[in-house]
Amino acid sequence: MFKSHFASFIITYKRLITAFTLVSLLSACGFHLRGDYLLSDELQTLYVSSSDVHGELTRLVKQHLSHNQVKVLKHKSAQEPELRIMSDTLNRRTLSVFENGQVAEYELIYAVHYQLRFTDEEPQDFRFELNRDYQDDPNLALAKSRELSLLLSEMRTSAADKILRDMARVQR
Length: 172
Prior knowledge:
five-stranded mixed β-sheet; 2 domains; alpha/beta; 3 helices; single chain
C-alpha cells in the first residue's frame, strides 16, 4: 500500500515538474496569450472617445483595453492620452452578378480611422481597411442576413484587435 501511494506521488510530482518546465519555456520565449498586448506605461490610463459613443467598435475597444489592464477613463483628463475613434465605415463593392443581373457576391470593406493623442503633441493618425467577401443568395435571405451580421461583428472584433496591436507598437 505504501508503494502505491509513493508511486502515485512520484507520478504527480513528475507531471507538476513537466507543467512547470513547459510554462517556464513558453514565458521565456516571449509567448503570451492571443489578445494580450504589452502596451507602454504611458498608455496604461487612457481616455477613449468616439463620434459613435455607443457603437460596437467603441465598446469592443474599451473591452479589449480593460482586458489588458488599461484603466479607461470616463472623463477627459488634461494629462492622460486619448484614443479618438474618428470613423468606422462599411462599404461594399460588387464582385460578381447572376445571369439575371442580381448581385451574387460582394466585397465588404470596413475602414477605420482613429487618432492617438498625447498631451502637448500632434495627434498620431492611423487608418486601415479590412476586406471580406460575402456571397449573397436571394433564396436564403434570412440565413444570409444572419451571416452578414456575424461577418460584420467579426470584422469589428478584428478592428479592435488591430487598434490594440497598433497601440502596442507606438513609440514616443
